[in-house]
Amino acid sequence: MGLFGSSGDGGPADTLAASARGDSVTSDVLTVTTKRIENNYLTVKPLIEVLKEGEQPQHFFFNVSKGIQKDGNAVGSGMTNENRSLCLITDQRVMFFANGNEAMAASYATVDDARSKNGLTKGKLTVVTSGTDYDMYVNQNTSELEDAAAYIRNQAHSTGDPTEETSLTPIPDFRPLWNQSNDKETLSLDERYPESDEPCGSYVTSERLKKVVDILDNDEVVHFLTRGSTVDVEGSGAGGSLFGDDRSRKSGTKGYVRAVVTDRRVAVKVPQILGNDERSVPYSNITSVDMDTGLVNKRLTLQTPGQTYHIEVHEPRKDELREITRFIRGKISESNQPNTVQVESSDPDPLEQLEKLKTLHDQGVVDDEEFAEKKSDLLDKI
User: What is the pTM of this model?
Assistant: First the structure.
């Protein structure tokens, strides 16, 4: 039942709030759009008018500056935003709102997973659909976040076969959160890697490939992907920083740092506000590779003669990171194999020489004694 802002008049908003699983759903949350002091909710219409007939809200979360992130690309972020970013979880779908007039929803038939993370002062709810992560940071430090993630997972598993929808869909009267027409054409894994016996990590999906396709060669094959927040480079003029001399740290200021493990190299993309910082490390330059799986973060370390790359890895999980490490070691071994060049022998073919010798003997150029001697020598070479 909602604890705050309930008008107590027994109206529809009070009834919905009383039936909600979480205390975060109140009649004010459902009916108010403008706040007097704090950031506003919505400019189009209140949440109660967004609900479908018979739809029951269960949990509600918000943040004032982090926005909503789609694989690291934020909408509604910034301290100057006058509207909160909202997440309303109902018995039918998960809805996201930003900038007061933008919204999209994920039906449970499209949801693959949901995760929660509680920090000291704030938390994060992650909803996964078709390989895409939608992150909603939560200003409240609340145990309700874990319950909401569990509820989403349960609803997703109980919906049966998916519909034709594969991702978030717009909500009437609201603009889409992301301009879908600007998205690059989805790559088909089957078309990109037809009948390949080479390993391909489970974290590699068509949707995630779209994030790195701009740094790939046309014929380059991706075997693994990673996603994190930073990459540390040390050695050979990396530069000085707070992290030590000759060491620099690159953070993604406009999305996640992604490493691409291909058939020929490890490429790192660091999205920045003004373009991307890209690093390419061919296997022939890598002398060793190591992985570190700590209590909080995982890390992939590439050692080259001049520099060392420490790539932070949030995803994929530990087992796949081990596969990545083994794959890179195999590629290092292959690149260090000496090239075997087939050199044709300069010696004449004994059979060809024998035929020529017989022709000369038949023509009388070579006598019987010389023919017998040279024939014996050539037969010894066959």
Answer: 0.52
Q: What is the pLDDT along the chain (382 residues), one digit of tens a residue?
A: 333 334 455 689 999 999 999 999 999 999 998 877 778 899 999 999 999 999 999 999 999 888 899 887 788 887 667 889 999 999 999 999 999 999 999 999 999 999 998 877 778 999 999 878 999 989 765 779 999 999 999 998 776 554 445 578 999 999 998 764 434 444 455 555 555 566 788 888 877 887 888 888 878 889 999 999 899 998 855 555 454 556 788 888 777 899 999 999 999 999 877 677 889 999 999 999 999 987 667 999 999 998 999 999 999 999 999 999 999 999 999 988 765 554 455 566 777 777 877 787 777 767 787 778 777 777 776 6
Reported residue count of the chain is 382
**CB neighbours of residue 134 within 10 Å:** 23
Q: What is the CATH number of domain 12-180?
A: 2.30.29.30
Give CA–CA dist 46/25, Å, rounded: 13
Scanning the structure block, which residue is given the tokens 């920090």?
A: 119
Top CATH class, 184-335 = mainly beta
Sort strands 132-138 and 298-303 into parallel, antiparallel or unpaired. Answer: unpaired
